[in-house]
Specification:
The protein is mostly helical. It has two domains: about 10-195 and about 255-485, Up-down Bundle (Growth Hormone, Chain: A); about 200-255. About 75% of the residues lie in helices and about 0% in strands. It is built from 19 helices and two strands. It has helices at about 10-25, 35-40, 45, 50-60, 65-70, 75-95, 100-125, 130-160, 165-185, 200-220, 225-250, 265-295, 300-325, 330-345, 355-370, 375-380, 390-430, 435-465, 475-480, and strands spanning about 185-190, 485. It has a two-stranded antiparallel sheet. It starts with 8 loop residues before the first helix and ends with a strand. It comes from Planococcus versutus. InterPro entries: EmrB-like, MFS, MFS_dom, MFS_trans_sf. This is MFS transporter.
Length: about 500
């Protein structure tokens, strides 16, 4: 058995920096879309591709990350990923037309898609089970705080400068971890496996996850009756069924779905899916309520959500240490209780709800989520054998993308349907036309939050079945080359 050395904090710090930049970039453009539409003279449906395209590339490449992580060294993957991300950022910054901006955005996504699974696998390999909670808590800080800061910074920049400044700010920050990766990053030799890539599985995965993500994310704007939505979702679902059946027959599957035989991993996935769907309700519905109904500016909208991001950042390492000591169940039940209660409180919004009150509810909701997301995910991964880590992290990251898209489309549809129904009722009751729009939309948002409360309640019920996993480590696993020995490439 190979001798273990000290935990490679230097390597992890470099990977953390790259992951932070990549995740931070995901939400950076949301508030800037109106300005881009004006500057490049494009419609909202076209501009939305900057977000949808980014998400599609993530949905296509994340499932394949298990193959890349097993086949290539962490140093090689990191340098390629950060190079692609930096190149995409430069293309977007200098884009003379929308087509170049979209290409740049998708090149960015191709690099960013590999960062999260890579970092999670390094964390799992570098820390023993009894210390993973603390380590993954710090990782949770990156995963949650980075996208939360994006809208606040974006709102400030767009209000005072060109949207291109967003990319010029990100570029040097992306080049720093890239240079550190080239000159300082060493390898953690994982499994020395010369596995082959099943091209049919990759094609089915791309069609499946890409189709589902695109179909559900487009349903909110195109409508469920749209032929594009129906066809892409149908193709996606059929492709995923064929993909799943194929994986069960392969000795070296692209995505090892047989890990769902581990009960705690399956349970953690179910909780994470329901929580992600509910979490996206606030991320999608709150900006609509704040900006459209309350008339609050983009920068103030971002500032409203900032305390929630900061509290999550502060709590992630704390909940990680608590997880190491007490396990996931002790954190998940009170955390999800807070999510259920605050989501219900959001279903009682009014035209007169105060800015401070909304901020407090949102912050408490983020506190609850910080107590659940990483502990539950880590608890599930801890039950897996070492060789299944790349597949576990790939599945978790993919399902979060899909759950977010499905949850967003579902809740937006509920909001729109309820808004239309409420508008008819208000008109029949003699409400003035200028009041109908705001009152009907408010009713739609409240009802969507009410439905989201029940989705969060599903997570809470499932949390009562969480157990601390006991994963026997076989001698074969101990001998596998998945060690924390640092070697230069």
């Amino acid at each position: 058995m190979t001798e273990q050395k000290k935990t490679p904090y230097g390597i992890i710090a470099i990977l953390f920096t790259g992951a932070f930049v990549a995740i931070f970039n995901q939400t950076l453009l949301n508030i800037a879309l109106p300005e881009i539409m004006i500057d490049l003279n494009i419609e909202a449906s076209t501009a939305q591709w900057l977000v949808t395209g980014y998400m599609l590339i993530n949905g296509i490449l994340i499932p394949a990350s298990a193959y890349f992580i097993q086949r290539y060294s962490n140093r090689s993957i990191f340098i390629v990923a950060m190079s692609l991300f930096a190149l995409g950022t430069l293309l977007a910054a200098i884009a003379p037309a929308f087509s170049v901006l979209l290409i740049g955005r998708m090149v960015q996504a191709s690099g960013a898609a590999l960062m999260m699974p890579l970092l999670m696998n390094v964390m799992l390999a570098a820390f023993p089970v009894e210390k993973r909670g603390s380590a993954m808590g710090v990782f949770g800080l990156v995963m949650v705080v980075a996208p939360a800061i994006g809208p606040t910074l974006s709102g400030f920049i767009v209000e005072h400068y060109s949207w291109r400044v967003l990319f010029w700010i990100v570029l040097p920050v992306a080049l720093v971890p890239l240079l550190l990766g080239i000159f300082k990053l060493k390898n953690l030799t994982f499994q020395d496996r010369k596995i082959s890539l099943d091209k049919a599985s990759l094609a089915l995965s791309s069609l499946g996850f890409g189709g589902v993500l695109y179909g559900f994310s487009s349903a909110g704007t195109l409508g469920w009756n749209s032929l594009t939505v129906i066809v892409t979702i149908t193709v996606g679902i059929v492709s995923l069924i064929i993909f799943g059946l194929r994986q069960l027959k392969l000795d070296e599957p692209l995505l090892e779905i047989r890990i769902y035989k581990y009960p705690m991993f399956a349970l953690s996935s179910a909780i994470s899916i329901a929580l992600s769907m509910s979490m996206f309700s606030a991320m999608i519905l709150m900006p609509i309520y704040i900006q459209t109904i309350k008339g609050i500016s983009p920068i103030d909208s971002g500032l409203l959500m900032l305390p929630g991001a900061l509290i999550m950042g502060f709590m992630s390492p704390v909940t990680g240490r608590l997880f190491d000591r007490f396990g996931a169940k002790v954190l998940a039940i009170p955390g999800l209780s807070l999510v259920v209660i605050t989501t219900y409180m959001f279903s009682q919004l009014s035209l007169d709800s105060s800015y401070v009150n909304i901020m407090l509810i949102y912050t408490v909701r983020m506190l609850g989520i910080s107590m659940v997301m990483m502990p539950v995910m880590t608890n599930g991964l801890n039950t897996l054998p070492i060789k299944a880590y790349p597949h576990g992290t790939a599945i978790n990251n993919t399902l979060q993308q899909v759950a977010g898209a499905v949850g967003s489309a579902f809740l937006i549809t509920i909001m729109n349907t309820r808004t239309s129904s409420a508008a008819k009722t208000l008109a029949a009751n003699g409400t003035t036309p200028e009041d109908i729009q705001h009152l009907a939309m408010l009713d739609g948002i409240n009802f969507a939050f009410f439905v989201s409360t029940f989705i969060a309640l599903v997570s809470l019920i499932l949390a009562f079945f969480i157990k601390k996993p006991v994963r026997p480590v076989t001698e074969a696993e101990k001998e596998i080359v998945y060690r924390r020995t640092e070697v230069t490439e």
